[in-house]
């Protein structure tokens, strides 16, 4: 795999991200980290399966009309993904810089795309504003490392609950309006009846979190 000018972008608990040049393209390289406490054979098998699953789920998301980086190469032996570099601004940084009408448009688009993921029975698993990038007039969804397939309303409720927590903790001055517009977009894709079921689950999850935190 011919890689030039490898530069560390970020280190995570499960993987390291690099910006690099790969056959003339600017790319992001994601390498899953070996864990010393695991059996080496099982460790490699687990990292390889997670690498393949992430690539497959990103492809499934794209088929569901959710913008994601193009996967250029999957290397199971080195548990590495080579993917398109999205030249944009993370929603985490962008929300506070947008005016109200632009913010409404972005949030509504986020809600619609989450609805499309869930309609395809895809759960992102780490649905935060850090894992969304605004590029042009699109919001790209990234980091599908914890993604999985599920028809469960509970799992979809957890996805939305994580997004709400992300808004509350990082964008508290805009969180109420942002969530309102996100849910508006979600309803447009999923319908009122189905959305109500998911929101009911989201509220149950939020209540359970408050209950258990209050007991500690």
SSE blueprint and pairings:
Blueprint: E1 4-11, E2 15-22, E3 25-32, H1 40-63, E4 71-75, E5 80-84, E6 89-90, H2 91-94, H3 100-119, E7 122-123, E8 132-135, E9 138-141, E10 148-149, H4 153-170, H5 175-190, H6 192-215
CATH superfamily placement of the largest domain: Transferase(Phosphotransferase) domain 1
Low-confidence stretches: none
Strand content: 15-25%
* Secondary structure: number of strands: 10
The neighbouring-strand order within the major sheet is 1-2-3-5-4
Structural class: alpha+beta
Mean pLDDT, to the nearest integer, reads 94
- For the report, how would you describe the main beta sheet? 5 strands, antiparallel
Helix proportion range: 40-55%
Basic shape: globular
Gyration radius, rounded = 18 Å
The CATH architecture of the largest domain is Orthogonal Bundle
Count of distinct structural domains: 2
The CATH topology of the largest domain corresponds to Transferase(Phosphotransferase), domain 1
Distance between the termini: 50 Å
Order of helices and strands: EEEHEEEHHEEEEHHH
CATH C-level class of the largest domain is Mainly Alpha
Helix count from the secondary structure assignment: 6
């Amino acid at each position: 795999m011919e890689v030039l000018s490898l530069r560390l972008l970020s280190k995570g608990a499960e993987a390291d991200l690099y910006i690099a040049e790969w056959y003339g393209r600017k790319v992001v390289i994601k390498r899953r980290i070996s864990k010393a406490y695991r059996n080496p054979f099982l460790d490699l098998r687990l990292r390889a399966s997670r690498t393949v699953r992430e690539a497959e789920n990103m492809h499934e998301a794209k088929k569901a009309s959710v913008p994601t980086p193009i996967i250029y190469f999957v290397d199971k032996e080195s548990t590495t993904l080579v993917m398109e570099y999205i030249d944009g601004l993370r929603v985490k940084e962008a929300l506070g810089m947008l005016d109200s009408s632009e913010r409404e448009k972005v949030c509504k688009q986020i809600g619609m795309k989450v609805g499309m993921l869930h309609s395809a029975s895809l759960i992102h698993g780490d649905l935060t504003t850090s894992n969304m990038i605004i590029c042009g007039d699109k919001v790209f969804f990234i980091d599908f490392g914890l993604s999985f397939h599920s028809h469960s309303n509970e799992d979809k409720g957890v996805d939305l609950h994580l997004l709400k927590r992300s808004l509350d903790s990082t964008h508290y001055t805009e969180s109420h309006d942002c969530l309102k517009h996100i849910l508006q977009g979600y309803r447009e894709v999923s319908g009122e009846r189905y959305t109500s079921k998911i929101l009911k689950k989201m509220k149950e999850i939020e209540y359970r979190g408050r209950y258990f935190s209050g007991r500690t």
